[in-house]
Amino acid sequence: MKNFICIILFLFSSISAKNFSLKSLDNQFDYVIITIDKFRNGCEEFKDHKNSHNNFSVLITTKNEILNEFYDSENEQENIRDFISYTNHFWQDPKPKYFLFAADLDSIPNFKFRSVDFIDYNDSSYSDFYYGIDKLGDDSTKISVSVGRISSQDTIQLKNYFSKIITYESNSFYEEWHNKSLFISDDEYGGNDLYDGNIFQSLTRKVADYLPNSITKDFIIPIDTSEFYGNNQTIMEKLNSGVSSVYFCGHANDTIFTHESLFVYTDISKLLNVNKPFFVSFLAGQQFARNNETSIVNELINSQNGALASISPVGAVFAIQNNELIKNIWSSLYSGKSIGEIYITSINEADNFNEKRKMNIFGDPSVTLKYNFPVSISSVDLIQEEFSLLQNYPNPFNPSTKISYTIPDLKAGEILVKLIIYDILGNEIEILVNESQTPGKYSVTFDAKNISTGVYFYSLITNNFIETKKMLLIK
After folding, report:
1. How far is residue 220's CA from residue 231's CA, in Å, rounded to a whole number?
2. Domain map (residue ranges) of the chain
3. Helix (H, G, I), strand (E, B) or coil at 139
4. pLDDT tens, 387-410?
């Protein structure tokens, strides 16, 4: 009897798969993984994790399944792009917010263009940028969804990456390295007897200055007279001890950072940052794996240790313009937003189309960096001149967090104060405070043990003041 039941169940699931259509108007998914047939089973554990951790409805589909239903163009890229645009117009709400390619460029190609048009420089970019632009929309320069890629060439690389994400997101504890950022600058030598001065040190400073004060910023400069002098060994020690984010700012090609080889792709196999993956950006161009070629960022993503995600350019770039893009991206790294959300906002706000179309997400676009923002708790008797609602601490949190706010001295004695928790749809989850209070500083603990992972909002409401902030519950 058990064998019979198994056969019937298998038959039913096979029939269901055959009847499923990507063009169905009833489809509703938050996250779409696009892979190839041989990687499909390898994506299942990641799908289950995103479903339980993020409460995402996740679809795994393959390039062949897409091309069976979307085939108007001779180019596979355009047909896949047709599918992504179709989901944004014809699937049920909420539409897919995240797309993830789980395959290299030989298996699922993207869009090729010259990196630099107006000078004699022979270099090409292979970018996923155009996948994010809605072909059925009104603006051909803006992206509407975030597209990431794990450019894996075998199931081992795929498993390496998925395991990193699952472990990182499943661990609800916060550690000191979550609030550390590392900036690695090139020296002054630009190759061919040319010298750049301190431009790369200046560019890293510009990015670092946009991080919150609670993030510890460490610098490495390969100049022995610098107070931040460091070499390859210094970099390896810093990465292995644990950092949350890393910026490599300087001359580089796909496999070598700086002319002096300060960091090369073969160093990745020596990394020992177990369960301490970092977000990484490169100023210079990187690439997804294709034709048996790879890059430092690609190897950092695919390795067992290494990186959690990256937003980096593909192809040759102009340093100053590209650094502006990276500065805008990094200014929101520790905001509770996902990498994909940060990418969309930063790219759409940028003016230089040729530079921003080179920017790509390596890895899962839905991942959010962990961090701890300290909140200064003052005496309840301290009186301020205006209302204030502070960011909850810790954030993200599990299962409880503290919300602090200040009631000013309005010469009116007690006033009615409400502090209410809402979900992302605006539904009221809990009323934490609903009483008359005197001027002062207050702190309330919100216990979320009975609600699921997700984004929530809390509002401080009085007769003449309303302020709302966002918080992230991760279980």
Report:
1. 8
2. 28-372, 388-473
3. coil
4. 889 999 898 999 999 999 988 876
Are the beta carbons of 380 and 460 closer than 8 angstroms? no
Q: Which of 218, 198, 221 lies closest to 278 in space, CA to CA?
A: 218
**315 CB neighbour count, 10 Å cutoff:** 23
Per-residue CA distances from 145 to 30, 149, 295 (Å): 11, 13, 25
> DSSP assignment, residue 319?
H
Residues 295 and 287: their CA atoms lie apart, in Å, by 6
Helix H or strand E segment including 405: strand 400-407
Q: How many CA atoms lie within 13 A of 332 on its CB side?
A: 17
Sign of dihedral through CA atoms 243, 248, 253, 256?
A: negative
The class that CATH gives domain 28-372 is alpha beta
pTM for the predicted model, two decimal places: 0.78
Q: Residue 220's Cα: distance from chain center in Å?
A: 24
With contact defined as beta carbons under 8 Å apart, do 250 and 183 qualify? no
Instruction: Please answer whether residues 317 and 229 qualify as being in contact, where contact means their C-beta atoms are separated by less than 8 angstroms.
Output: no
Decide if 337 contacts 343 (C-beta within 8 A). Answer: no
**Cβ-count burial of 410 within 10 angstroms (0-12 exposed, 13-18 middle, 19+ buried)?**
middle
What's the start-to-end Cα distance of the chain, in Å?
39
pLDDT in tens, 134-155: 999 999 999 999 999 999 999 9
- Read off the pLDDT of residues 404-431 as tens digits, 9 standing for 90 and up: 998 887 666 788 899 999 988 888 899 9
Residue 54 has what pLDDT? 87
Phi/psi at 8 (nearest 5 deg)? -65, -45
At which residue do the structure tokens 């001779």 appear?
Answer: 74
Q: Which is the CATH superfamily of the domain at 388-473?
A: Macroglobulin (MG2) domain (2.60.40.1930)
| Cα gap 118→196, rounded to integer Å | 22
- Contact between 237 and 177 under an 8 Å Cβ cutoff? The reply is no
CB 144 within 8 A of CB 72: no
DSSP 354: H
Cβ contact 99:147 at 8 Å: yes
Name the nearest CA neighbour of 125 among 362, 315, 284, 353.
315
Q: What CA–CA distances, in Å, run from 63 to 26, 35, 48, 144, 311?
A: 21, 6, 21, 21, 24
Beta-bridge partners for 418:
434, 461
Task: Give the CA-trace dihedral at 76, 343, 115, 211, to 10 degrees.
Answer: -160
> How far apart are the C-alpha atoms of 247 and 338, rounded to whole Å?
18
The CA distance from 338 to 207, in Å, is: 19
- Phi, psi (5° rounding) for residue 353? -65, -40
Distance from the Cα of residue 93 to its chain's centroid? 23
Written as six digits, the tokens of 352 are 């230089």
